[in-house]
């Protein structure tokens, strides 16, 4: 993709950035530019004109003001783990790298909240919290920055119990397109004071402002954690067990589905000691008695659906072992086709439609001869098809793109969404329109109000 | 208060409304106008020019378009239980009464969601759900409409467990100022598709659009519910027990504080068999074993703080009896001063500052000789001072207003909010500015983008 470059006097901008921030905070090194135009998806890199490394909200203000002067687009960058091309500099401009904003600013243990700079990663935060008895649960897999997770409304494996970034961000510091700084939200558990600006910026993908600080909700480390794996005759049986579990209000911390194709990949990759059958991976958090009760209730609910091989453990070491398989999913998929790249879809449907959606999708995959295991955070109705593909084969890419479109529209038609947790980026713009119709026009009006020159991550969420 | 009337040719507007909706859906009866300009607060009625009763989203569109033609303000009205003058027609215009939009449109028991017209009240919804094993937990006290609860981001006694309307509204149908209709959100548990319009309209108090339909999250009726009352030597001891309970992650369904002044009022009003001591009222939801465990944990945590008279029960009848006292709070306050009116404040602070905030506030009340018991949804850090006053005594009103201002600013200074659940209306506009600073300018930009002529509930949230 060729960038439609719009920065006026890019060389002058670079000079002014160096003057404002110092040379060690500005780079035009080709490798660094290339790296900042690319995330973990199969989308190609679209490099910015310059990368500016911010160390503070004030740095971001300075960068935003200089960019405005040169009509340069601004693209926030954390560690580049997004999956829909969010960081691609489609019109060139300044990539603001926030990874040096890596300070934990406040821990309020009594109030179960923490304030971090946007570049702190979730693993770094949890390492910092280790001795407090508290943790931040949201786990999208990648060790993403908390600013990036807020910007893309990330979630992951334990959203079924703890919610997504929508529920767990208490407030934000945001630098707006004109350089103003606002602080949204607050430290109280709830508020009815004015419009919910926090939730407006969570999930806005850098298109309304640059998130520089994030206040998050924390949780006490559960007294007991237990993991379980269960096998099922069919994927429908596994999904029906999930549906029954959710409907019974059992507060499971994680429920992950692995279909038989994915189990096969895992068995080959990690020499797993399981039969090639659809499986559910559970995690339970609570008191010792509560966890035991939850596991027993799930096992009992699964009986109707032929649950088998139910193994469960409270021991940390065995727990990691049970989960290891789930963590190897991506590598096991890539191992199926050396040199292939992975495209992850992100459908999310009402739980009652989950079996239908997964079964129709499995049929679609098989009919089109795709190599595509399924895993899912099924407690939320969210599942990912990992299509292993060759991005340099145009015919295959066309087949895959048609499949991706059918899946997004199938999910929307079932009352679901084209993206449960990855966001729109620039890959899913047509599906956003299909999902929200006139609502997209309203989103555009909000964008226009806060970023009239369309300089904040242009070409994302909305077509340029 | 005199309305700054702006409707052009009000008589012509009434005629056109009758033509569009039929005479039985339009009223200019003086009593009806007066009733629609007033909520349950001490704010005086400011009557609209006309009341239009809507039966459908299409009716609302027709009303909004006619109002636009006449530059008439539009004020949504449910059952008038708001507490900050939200329904006052400060510039005249059309009050859209949504109480006839009282249909439950869909119950999706499998997905734990329901879609209702905006005029369905929370009690009507729960009566409708009675045989399904599901319920909608948010309980602000009043039998408010669900549209009104969404518009004011209401919560109440069991938000500590189930969240507020922010967490429990899945989607909305909204009629915009220009007559466009949008449907926000969706039926899947989570989505990362574009800006969170649902959360933008929740809490917007009718200033951005008219909510006509609401999709809500439901919960399974808990297997077991238990209630408990505990007494404490001081209010600080009671609050410290709450703080410890929340920090321990015990999933209490309700924790209500009643201070000694309020207990005294209740003892006099309802001849309660309790000593005049600060009390906590608890409710626990869960499995039988879980509920027992929760109650035992709370009783153990309270020992350090002199917990006494701990009574608990799982029996429905005894449960209601324990809660009866809490439900009589408003009447018991009014009984303290026959002919008086009640003004309810709405501070909400981080839980670690709750004891400080309540103790300083109690001192403030006593120093200024106010008659003002304290109750609170203290699990959220939210408490209400019920000031019993004579609105016709200007000197007293001045003393009360100064107290209200000190309390709001005290709450904000402690990292809290001027309103935990009542909203801004037109009583709290200066405090919104104190709380959110430059953020209010951003809220105004959003308002300007969606309602450029300022016709949607003008004078609320922002000064006219």
TrEMBL record, chains A, B:
PROSITE patterns: FAD_PCMH. It comes from the Bacteria. This is D-lactate dehydrogenase (cytochrome). Pfam families: FAD-oxidase_C (PF02913), FAD_binding_4 (PF01565). Keywords: FAD, Flavoprotein, Oxidoreductase, Transit peptide. Its cofactor is FAD. Its EC number is 1.1.2.4. Gene3D superfamilies: 3.30.465.10, 3.30.70.2740, Vanillyl-alcohol Oxidase, Chain A, domain 4. The keyword Transit peptide applies. Residues 43-221 form the FAD-binding PCMH-type domain. Belongs to the FAD-binding oxidoreductase/transferase type 4 family. The keyword Oxidoreductase applies.
